[in-house]
Amino acid sequence: MLTMFCYMVSCLGFKKRPLEACCGVGGEYNFTIDKECGYEGVSNCQNPSEYVNWDGYHLTEAAYWKMAQGILNGPYATPAFDWSCLEYYESVNKEYPFIK
């Protein structure tokens, strides 16, 4: 799945450089191990939703969201996720509200 993000980033709405970190400083990929996100002088991009990589270690919220959508709604799960189980959970939750 992550390989698809690296090869099809523009199709998914991300910038064309999937390994470039949104939050970082220096280097070819905007990542320097001794100047990580949160350190003084390290900035983050204006629009994180355009990036796959957040800080050189973690993906952005947008990338995780796209992955989750692919798992829950296809095409990354075979067979596709069965949403009917949520109907059962909602009916059980109404009958037994203490179950969460």
Automatic annotation (TrEMBL):
**Species per Swiss-Prot/TrEMBL record:** Arabis alpina (Alpine rock-cress)
Q: Which Gene3D superfamilies match?
A: SGNH hydrolase (3.40.50.1110)
Family of this protein: Belongs to the 'GDSL' lipolytic enzyme family.
Task: Please indicate which superkingdom the organism of origin belongs to.
Answer: Eukaryota
Under PANTHER family, the record lists: OS05G0506800 PROTEIN (PTHR22835:SF683), ZINC FINGER FYVE DOMAIN CONTAINING PROTEIN (PTHR22835)
The name this protein goes by in its record? GDSL esterase/lipase
